[in-house]
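Following up on my earlier thread - several people asked me to post the actual chain instead of describing it. Fair enough. Here it is, all 192 residues.
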Amino acid sequence: DFQLYHDGTHGVLNNTTGNLYTSALGAMIFRTSLNVTALTLDASQNANFAGEILNRMAAPKIRLEPTTQNNTSIIELGVLNGGTNAYARIDAINLLNYDSNLRFYTNPVGSTTQTLALTLDSSQNAIFTGSVTATSLDINGNADVSGDLTGLDNVTSTNFIIGGHTISDVDIDSEASDADDHLMTALAIKNK
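Reply from S.P.:
Thanks for posting it. Predicted structure:
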């Protein structure tokens, strides 16, 4: 049931029944032919890889799922459709209240101070704690702003809702009209 031998080319460790258990009082260290440590399994149940972790199967997937009594986090990187499509998935789930919010902090885990920067919640909302800076920002849908909008150079929209009133156009110069949903500039009022 258990074999340990050399086949003339390779050394072989083969267990044909049940599980194969290995243990050590300290760390278990796996080395390459050049006596370079490639993997260390220490007494604290940590796996320390000296190089890259490669998975080059037809549909490779790397999944990390650390779980405590009430929480689980999933980090999954994989390739689908024979290598045609790559994907990345990150889930953070609280098993007590089903809080599947994903939170990004500006300081790394273990820092004495951690500042929440971005929350992606289960309702597909992106909640930024600070400012959003971008060369351009395209919003396909409704934009609900509870604070002030400043520094806007160009805004394009079909309708604006101000104080509960829908504004569909701004009349300037000679564009003055009597439409209830139009705003008028001072020049448009003067030329009316």
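The first strand starts at residue 2 and ends at 6. That should answer part of your original question.
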